[in-house]
């Protein structure tokens, strides 16, 4: 099967200027009618054990792809993959790792969960405990490693 570009090159080689003009006119018409739409964002349903079973049923009984199943049920394709490959969401257990992660994410979005402490403050307190302090209360520096000078060679 030849591509459009190969077809155009063949027309050029054979000197078919009228056919090239018609092809160019068709391209211009298509460009004029072209509409750029933003990417389609699907707001997924809450994953439930019933929805997970429905995904497995569709996967087993039809030849639908994961993407087609996701579009049909209105869920994220990644969730369909998790159900099929790893069996996630099949139990109604609220302490399952995926349910806990979902609830934490929802709490973080709503602002109910407090922000984590900064890592820099935790590191500085850990460093000060590891070094000994001298009489002035300043942390003592560890001795520098030996360096070579020009005269050492």
Automatic annotation (TrEMBL):
Give the top-rank taxon of the lineage listed in the UniProt record for this protein: Bacteria
Extract the InterPro entries matched here: Lambda_DNA-bd_dom_sf, RNA_pol_sigma_r3/r4-like
Chain residue ranges for the region called Disordered: 92-153
What Gene3D superfamilies does the entry give? lambda repressor-like DNA-binding domains (1.10.260.40)
From the Swiss-Prot or TrEMBL record, what is one GO molecular function term?
DNA binding
Its recorded name reads RNA polymerase subunit sigma-70
Species whose genome carries this gene: Methylobacterium frigidaeris
Organism lineage string: Bacteria, Pseudomonadati, Pseudomonadota, Alphaproteobacteria, Hyphomicrobiales
